[in-house]
Design brief:
By secondary structure, the protein is an alpha/beta fold. About 40% of the residues lie in helices and about 15% in strands. Bound molecules: pyridoxal-5'-phosphate.
């Protein structure tokens, strides 16, 4: 349900987050233009997406295909950019190219091959980030850090027309101290740098890291994409009800 003050709250939250992004960037000698803010609208109603879009936000993130598709349909004419940030099963891959510009959760060769087949058939292309389980959390998806180089090598040996490998994504450790969070994000940055260098990939530039609770340290460690949900929209609507 949308409360009368949602418009003000979302516009104010977006303003505060953009300011915090700029401050964090500045303190790291970076510019805010280097950082893309993905507004994570999972479990939020289309009405709230419309409010954020009206406040100038044009990049949104969703984590399931079922929930995302009706929203994408509704905003088809609004030129919004959608990012798929959740775990994606290979059998759902067919809906991602063409609907989403970015996938943050590439974690298997089989998924990459399926996405490439769909993207090629549609003459679309998909920017893909490899998800790394940087916190080594057994409940999380992603490639183990020590398996990343062999995985990238395998991807590069496979014809994957339509898939552009653009960088890495991770979820920071939680709960964790500021020092542990920064160490995890720094480790992700080092892995990206190593991939770029070792495999000579000039466009492997992106680091998707940082959410509502940790986007500031993520930017200080080099995040180029931050994924922020509750700090923009408030508590997720569908979980509020249950
Ligand atoms: C839900 C989610 C986010 C946003 O989390 P908040 O804490 O609400 O900002 C970011 N990334 C992923 C992968 C998510 O699933």
């Amino acid at each position: 349900m949308t409360y009368p003050d949602s418009t003000t709250a979302i516009a104010r939250n977006l303003g505060e987050i953009r300011e915090a992004v700029a401050d964090a960037a500045g303190s790291a000698g970076r510019t805010p233009q280097e950082i893309t803010l993905v507004a994570v609208s999972k479990n939020q109603s289309p009405a709230l997406v419309a409010i954020a879009a009206a406040a100038g936000q044009c990049v949104f993130g969703e984590n399931t295909v079922q929930e995302a598709m009706p929203k994408l349909e509704r905003f088809r004419s609004d030129a919004l950019e959608w990012h798929f940030i959740g775990h994606l099963q290979s059998n759902k891959a067919k809906l991602v190219p063409g609907n989403f510009a970015w996938l943050h959760s590439l974690d298997s060769l089989n998924l990459a091959q399926r996405l490439a087949r769909v993207a090629t058939a549609q003459r679309n292309s998909l920017n893909a980030l490899i998800e790394v389980n940087i916190a080594r959390d057994p409940s999380k998806h992603g490639i183990a850090p020590e398996s990343l180089m062999p995985f990238v090598e395998q991807l590069l040996q496979t014809p994957l027309l339509g898939i552009a490998l653009r960088g890495l994504m991770a979820i920071g450790p939680y709960p964790a101290s500021e020092a542990q969070i920064r160490a995890a994000f720094a480790a992700l940055r080092a892995l990206r740098d190593e991939c770029r260098r070792r495999f000579n990939l000039p466009s492997f530039t992106e680091l998707s890291m940082g959410m509502s609770g940790d986007f500031v340290p993520a930017i200080k460690e080099g995040a180029t994409i931050v994924r922020v949900g509750t700090a923009i929209f408030g508590v997720r609507e569908y979980s509020k009800k249950s």
